Amino acid sequence: MSGFDKVVTSYDAALQGLDDNMTVIAGGFGLCGIPEGLIAQIQKLGVKGLTVVSNNCGVDDFGLGLLLKDRQIKKMISSYVGENALFEQQLLSGELEVELTPQGTLAEKMRAGGAGIPAFYTATGYGTPVGEGKPVREFNGRPYILEESITGDFAIVKAWKADRYGNCVYRHTAQNFNPMAATAGKITVVEVEEIVEPGELDPAHIHTPGIYVDRVILGSFEKRIERKVLAKEAN
Predict the structure, then answer these.
(1) I want to staple 54 with a disulfide (CB 3.0 to 4.6 A). Which of 26, 38, 177, 222 is the partner?
(2) What would the pLDDT profile of 113-161 be if each residue is shown by its tens digit?
(3) Rounded Cα–Cα distance for residues 11 and 13 (Å)
(4) SS3 at position 110
(5) CATH number of 11-218
(6) InterPro entries this protein is in (predicted)?
(7) Residue 94, Cβ neighbours under 10 Å: how many?
(8) Which helix (H) or strand (E) holds 190?
(9) What pLDDT shows up at residue 1?
(10) Is 61:35 a contact under the CB 8 Å cutoff?
(11) Alpha-carbon distance 207 to 181, whole Å?
């Protein structure tokens, strides 16, 4: 295999270089499309003082919630925190710094960071606490606030398939924040369900080009359901 091969065979190698006080951008939405093994490895490494950028912080005993439990996260930049009682507890006690960000704005912060765009204007959040202290400009008679983009020391991402060059395909709703997160890390690590040989993926179906990816690791996934809702049987 050529020097473009990005596959690593251990989680130690996948997260080599991760250290205290770094910023980690994590893909996923709730428990859908989260890099379970990479999160578990961060817990195992015991790094502290992390700033984690993710839509939410998992649940109390799974996903990023594991890092909250071990007091490894100093600051969360997220858009939804409703399923995690420990998150609420640490926030209210002042133990955890939280920057709540509208969901679309958070996605655009990642995308813009990956595209080398330092900031952008959005109408979302104007006139609310989200917009307090941020520069405002008017375009076509409507006020917009300036939001800075986000980049991280590491991005951890979950994909369905990847080839050895790091080209990735996501499956259904597991696409969520993963493509944006993948572009915004100085080091991007993708945990996948299947690794294929170069040329096996249809180029038209690739969601994240390998140019953004530094390491690929084959994982196994529990794919826990966050909240199961069943239809009632008809009488």
Answers:
(1) 26
(2) 999 999 999 999 999 999 999 999 999 999 999 999 999 999 999 999 9
(3) 5
(4) helix
(5) 3.40.1080.10
(6) 3-oxoacid_CoA-transf_A, CoA_trans_fam_I, CoA_transf_BS, NagB/RpiA_transferase-like
(7) 7
(8) strand 185-196
(9) 47
(10) no
(11) 12
Q: Supply the pTM of this predicted model.
A: 0.92
Neighbours of 21 (CB within 10 A): 11
Paired tokens of 220: 């196994």
The CA distance from 11 to 218, in Å, is 9
Nearest-angstrom CA–CA distance, 129 and 151: 23
**217 phi/psi in degrees, rounded to 5:** -135, 140
**String of DSSP letters for 58-106:** -BTTBTTHHHHHTT-EEEEEES--TT-HHHHHHHHHTSSEEEE--HHHH
Are 193 and 200 in contact, with CB atoms under 8 Å apart?
Answer: no
CA nearest 144: which of 161, 166, 127? 127
- Candidate from 44-48, 56-60, 129-133, 211-215 with smallest mean pLDDT: 56-60
Residue with tokens 């520069």: 135
Above 70 in pLDDT, residue 2? no
State the virtual CA torsion across 192, 196, 197, 201 in degrees, nearest 10: -100
Long-range pairs for 96-102 at CB < 8 Å and ≥24 separation?
96/68, 99/75, 100/130, 101/77, 101/130, 102/130
